[in-house]
Write a structure and sequence with these properties.
The protein has 1182 residues and is of the alpha+beta class. It is built from 38 helices and 40 strands. Strands 29, 30, 31, 32, 33, 34 and 35 form a 7-stranded mixed β-sheet that branches. A 6-stranded antiparallel β-sheet has the order 14-13-18-17-16-15, with helices on both faces. The protein has a 5-stranded antiparallel β-sheet with strand order 2-1-5-4-3, with helices on both faces. Helix 28 packs parallel to helix 29, helix 35 (1093-1118) runs antiparallel to helix 38 (1157-1178) and helix 36 packs antiparallel against helix 37. It is found in: Cell membrane. The modification Phosphohistidine is found at residue 1129.
């Protein structure tokens, strides 16, 4: 509309516009005129310059708006305006007019000018900066660099602007820079991050400079990254300093590592900061740490103790106290260094010092060699003192005043004074008067001038003894450096030597006379080997006059081939088997004769020089005989080779025979053991049958069966013992025993059989015979049992005597030799029978075997046992005149008092009123033993095998007393007692007494607290138990105490009978063998107590013990403490009942399950050995 409206309308419209506006008419001739404008446009329009038309033409030609700025004055003020020309089109589309508007931009232009000035100022500042500043686009195109940046690269800024610096990077550096700029786009808490990197730049001059860049991303108003800015700081000096520091640190490390001592540095917190290789080598327990640095001093100490590489006796005694003491000394090091010892034997001196910053420097010095040298010095001093005290020569040391400081044993012997009587006094007391007068002068001259005319010079002097007599001495003096001692004199008593020298002159005269008359050639050679004397016999032997040989060397007469041997003779060496040499000498007539020469070196004296004395004897015939002998010897050597081959073949055959013998012995031992077990049952049943009602015919059968079983068991015992001996398993004990008691045991055992046969059995032991001896009582008893048993077997009338026929004591080694004789009035033996009587499986004749039975092993075993005890056995006999068997044994004198004789056990009388007793005992042998004993006491006994069964039996009632073992399967004695005490009525109040092998006082109290009325330990004192039964369940009263009241009132418990002292002890396994195997007294008491059941008990003992031993072994292997403890307890009780002392003691030790597995295994092995030995002792050869 503005393009076509009238000018008047146009002006009116323009006047209504608020901004400066004007309209220009575009003429056809491309000229322009203003056709309207408001007042606001007047000042702007007037300011248009001549180039205004150019802007109008541009708008006309392009048909697009045109903008440009113009400065003008408005009322004298400088103003700026932005002119905008917009084309106005007519109906034809042509530009008819131009609409111009003016915008006042004075303020903006002023701001832009200020900004330009500021930029120039900023640019100047940047150009003066030492830091490198650059800006670049995301593709690394540089858009700005300051002068410092350009100077570093040696080019003007414009030469690098617009270039992409990434193009000049290597692929790896380019990838690194790209990754860096990728991270720059990240933000932390809404703010862009700054990344720092360092790299080396090579300047055009070839110099390498290190730059540290701080990089940030540049973003637009929308947060989009439009470029990056990097500010670089030259850190070359710092890098060089760091490199210098690293070099210095490497040098310091090399210096520290080169230190021969161990070096370590701890910080103020006692943490290891730095150490060298020697410290690591001296502290091997550092390998406990992956990274030793950072470990504290205490950590390192503990690692050393844990690894057992660091040794210190105080640490073993009290580890924590030692660690605390050592840490305190480390933190506050003392002035004196500590010492450290490693398990590998090395010693270190540890010196520690505090640093200014509170750390600790540690220096380890290896003093192992020093300690070894000190030990050697101490040993050397000890040896020196021993040498001085044992030296044959007198050694005396004096100081500068002539005072004696040292005086050895030899000096005491020479002078007759003790060292204490001489040391500290003047040496002149030991000198003759003349020598004492001159002595002080020598001392004074030496002290004044240092010149000594006597040191190193030997001379003869006279000394004065304590009795005033003078003695001739050979004196050698040496000066002693250091200390206040001045001289050491070595003196030798030469009184005898001087006397000998006088005799020597006389002897030489006699020897010359002998040499002159000797048939051998005697020659004396000077040190230069020339002969200075030749005896006259050389003329007879060699046809040469002695004077023709004197002054010449012996080698001139020796065969050339024998010169080496002759030279040895000349040198005084001895080369032959008898210290002689053999060589040939030439006779005057040219023959070569063999001579044997013996030479000896003569020591020189003051009057005679050293030399060699030679004696030569002509042995030509002997040499010929020796040659013949060597030829014969060669022939014999060839024969010897054949004999050695034959000996090897014989040895192979011998080994094969020995292996067969071993196999036989092992088989016999196995079969004997396997057969013994069922035989035990057979004999036990025989004893039980004898205790039942039998007809006379049945009793005869049983008697025959028992006798046959006894004979068979004797045969088995003989075979077993012989197989053990043959296999080399015979052991001889060394314990003290009463000799007379052994003889009494033998007589006691066979007295019943002697009475039955009507023969006398006596013993004769002289009053002066030794009482207590040391040896193997079991084996000695076994030999006597066998000999007396045989005598009783073969003697029908008359008598048998056991006699100690002789004894001898050797005070030198406490040895005791004994000779025993067993004489009988039996049938006697022929010479042929005696010759083979001690062979295995041999009897006097076949009729003996048929009549008396047996294996023929008894005497063979006796022979082996006697020989093992250092003696021998024999027999003197004649047919019809009886026999006397004699043997000797070698024992030693005993060191203990003879054990007091045990009183004969009086079994308690039967109770006035029998009571009903319930017995709870898991071991079959103990059950049978106790039941039999209770029946003999007049009581009725019922036995059960465990605590649970005891509770059930007590629940049904009917018992006056319960005897309770404490360790049983299913339910133990203490638990069973508690259960019974909970039963209602009288069943819960029945008296309960413990029968146990547990002697520990703590366990006794614990068991009593379960509700027991009494406590007895095994072996049981039957008299005390009988009294306890009467007191608790019968009509009697124990110790005056009241019985258990109906209201449940407590009764004082019965006192325990302690087990043997040897079982209480806990000796080491090496001491267990010193305990006796069997308490014979206990066995005799048991025999007296249970009568006919004794043999059955003994027969059941091995099987019962082996069963408990198997249970114990299984428990130990499985780690089952309960099972092993219960088995050991039961085994201890069975052993105590039968007097098996050693088994009882070992079982007692095995009850303690706190032992290590290794120690328990040792005890188990000892237990098995003790069982084998005990079974042998309980089954002697009959």
């Amino acid at each position: 509309m503005l393009a076509t409206c009238a000018e008047t309308d146009l002006r009116r419209i323009i006047e209504g516009i608020g901004t400066p506006t004007f309209v220009i008419d575009a003429r056809k001739d491309r000229s322009f005129r203003q056709i309207g404008g408001n007042q606001r446009s007047t000042a702007f329009f007037a300011a248009l310059s001549a180039d205004f038309s150019d802007h109008c033409l541009a708008c006309l030609d392009t048909g697009e708006a045109v903008e440009f700025d113009r400065d003008f004055l408005d009322d004298g003020r400088a103003r700026s305006a932005r002119i905008t020309l917009v084309p106005l089109f007519d109906e034809t589309g042509g530009v008819a007019r131009l609409l111009g508007t003016a915008t006042d931009v004075s303020a903006r232009r002023a701001a832009e000018r200020e900004a330009q000035r500021t930029r120039a100022l900023y640019q100047g500042v940047l150009d003066e900066q030492q830091d490198l500043i650059s800006r670049f686009l995301p593709d690394t195109t540089l858009t700005y660099v300051n002068d410092a940046y350009a100077r570093l690269l040696g080019v003007p800024p414009e030469a690098i602007l617009g270039q992409r610096f990434a193009d000049a990077l290597t692929p790896s550096d380019r990838a690194r820079v790209t990754a860096l700029f990728d991270h720059l786009g990240e933000k932390v808490e809404g703010e862009p991050i700054e990344l720092v990197n360092e790299n080396a730049v090579v300047t055009p001059s070839g110099e390498q400079r290190w730059i540290r860049w701080r990089n940030v991303a540049l973003t637009d108003e929308g947060g989009r990254i439009v470029g990056y800015q990097s500010v670089g700081t030259d850190i070359t000096d710092r890098k060089l300093a760091e490199e210098g520091m690293r070099t210095a640190q490497r040098s310091l490390r090399e210096v520290i590592d080169s230190i021969s001592e161990g070096f370590a540095l701890y910080d103020a917190d006692d943490r290891l900061v730095l150490y060298n290789e020697n410290f690591a080598a001296n502290t091997p327990h550092l390998d406990a740490f992956d990274t030793p640095t950072g470990a504290t001093f205490e950590d390192i100490l503990r690692a050393g103790l844990d690894s057992r590489r660091l040794l210190d006796g105080r640490a073993i005694a009290n580890r924590e106290a030692w660690i605390a003491e050592r840490v305190a000394a480390h933190r506050f090091p003392p002035d004196t260094p500590a010492e450290q010892r490693l398990a590998d034997g090395r010693h270190f001196r540890v010196s520690e010092r505090r640093t200014r910053d509170g750390g600790v420097v540690c220096i380890q010095t290896d003093i192992t060699r020093l300690r070894e040298q000190e030990a050697k010095i101490r040993e050397s001093e000890r040896r020196l003192k021993v040498i001085l005290d044992t030296a044959a020569d007198a050694i005396i040391t004096i100081d500068g005043r002539g005072t004696v400081r040292d005086f050895n044993k030899a000096a005491e012997a020479i002078f007759g004074y003790l060292a204490d009587e001489v040391i500290g006094r003047s040496i002149e007391m030991l000198m003759s008067v003349d020598m004492a007068a001159a002595h002080q002068g020598f001392i004074d001259a030496h002290v004044a001038t240092g010149v000594n005319r006597i040191v190193g010079v030997g001379r003869e002097v006279q000394g004065r003894r304590s009795d005033g007599k003078l003695v001739d001495l050979d004196l050698a003096i040496s000066a002693v450096a250091g200390g206040d001692s001045l001289f050491t004199g070595i003196l030798r008593d030469i009184t005898d030597r001087k006397r000998t020298q006088a005799a020597l002159v006389e002897s030489e005269q006699r020897m010359r006379l002998l040499a002159d008359s000797a048939t051998d050639i005697i020659s004396l050679h000077a040190p230069d080997t020339t002969m200075i004397y030749v005896s006259p016999s050389c003329q007879a032997q060699l046809g040469i006059e002695p004077n023709d040989m004197i002054g010449r060397r012996l080698e001139e007469f020796v065969h050339p081939d024998d010169l080496p041997v002759a030279e040895l003779t000349r040198s005084g060496e001895r080369v032959g088997p008898a210290g002689s040499a053999v060589f040939r000498l030439r006779h005057r007539d040219g023959r070569w004769l063999w001579f044997e020469s013996v030479s000896g070196r003569l020591e020189g004296t003051r009057d005679h020089g050293a030399g060699i004395l030679t004696s030569m004897r002509e042995v030509t015939e002997r040499i010929r005989y020796e040659q013949e002998l060597r030829e014969a010897s060669d022939r014999l050597a060839a024969q010897a080779v054949e004999l050695r081959k034959l000996a090897v073949d014989l040895d192979v055959a011998r080994r094969i025979a020995e292996q067969a013998s071993d196999a036989k012995s092992q088989f016999l031992a196995m079969m004997s053991h396997e057969l013994r077990t069922p035989m035990t049952g057979v004999m036990g049943m025989v004893d039980l049958l004898n205790g039942t009602p039998l007809s006379d015919e049945q009793r005869g059968y049983v008697r025959t069966l028992g006798a046959s079983a006894g004979i068979l068991l004797t045969i088995l015992n003989d075979v077993l013992d012989f197989s053990k001996i043959e296999a080399g398993h015979l052991l001889i004990e060394e314990i003290d025993f009463d000799l007379r008691r052994i003889v009494d045991d033998v007589l006691h055992l066979f007295s019943g059989r002697a009475v039955e046969k009507g023969v006398t059995l006596t013993a004769d032991v002289p009053a002066d015979a030794p009482g207590v001896v040391r040896g193997d009582p079991t084996r000695l008893r076994q030999v006597l049992f066998n000999l007396v048993g045989n005598a009783l077997k073969f003697t029908e009338t008359g008598g048998i005597q056991v006699r100690l026929a002789g004894h001898r004591t050797d005070d030198a080694d406490d040895g005791v030799s004994l000779r025993f004789e067993v004489s009988d009035s039996g049938m006697g033996l022929t010479e042929e029978q005696r010759s083979r009587l001690f062979e295995a499986f041999v009897q006097a004749d076949t009729t003996t075997t048929r009549r008396f039975g047996g294996t023929g092993l008894g005497l063979a075993i006796c022979k082996r046992l006697v020989e093992a005890m250092g003696g021998e056995i024999g027999v003197e006999s004649a047919p019809g005149a009886g026999s006397t068997f004699h043997f000797t044994v070698r024992l030693t004198r005993g060191h203990a008092e003879p054990p007091p004789a045990k009183p004969v056990m009086t079994f308690p009388a039967a109770a006035k009123r029998g009571v009903r007793i319930l017995l709870a005992e898991d071991n079959e042998v103990n059950r049978l033993l106790v039941v039999k004993m209770l029946e003999r006491l007049g009581h009725t006994a019922t036995a059960v095998e465990d605590g649970q069964a005891a509770v059930e039996a007590a629940r049904h009632g009917g018992y006056d007393m319960i005897l309770m073992d404490m360790q049983m399967p299913v339910l133990d004695g203490a638990s069973a007692t508690r259960e019974i005490r909970r039963l209602p009525g009288a069943a819960g109040r029945v008296p309960i007494v413990a029968l146990t092998a547990d002697v520990a006082s703590g366990n006794r109290q614990r068991h009593l607290e379960a509700g027991l009325d009494g406590y007895f330990t095994k072996p049981i004192d039957w008299t005390a138990l009988a009294s306890a039964i009467d007191a608790l369940a019968g009509d009697g009263d124990l110790d005056g105490g009241a019985g258990r009241a109906e209201d449940g009132g407590a009764r004082s418990p019965v006192s325990a009978i302690p087990v043997m002292a040897c079982a209480d002890a806990a000796p080491g396994t090496d001491l267990l063998v010193r305990l006796p195997l069997v308490d014979i007294g206990r066995l005799e008491e048991l025999r007296a107590s249970i009568g006919d059941s004794y043999d059955l008990m003994i027969q059941m003992f091995p099987e019962s013990v082996r069963e408990e031993l198997d249970t114990l072994r299984a428990g130990l292997l499985a780690g089952d403490a309960v099972t092993s403890r219960r088995a050991a307890h039961t085994l201890k009780g069975v052993a105590a009942s039968f007097g098996a002392t050693r088994i009882q003691a070992i079982a007692h030790m095995l009850e303690d399950t706190s032992h290590s597995p290794e120690y328990s295994a040792q005890l188990l092995n000892s237990l098995e050995a003790a069982l084998a030995a005990t079974l042998d002792a309980l089954n002697p050869v009959a």
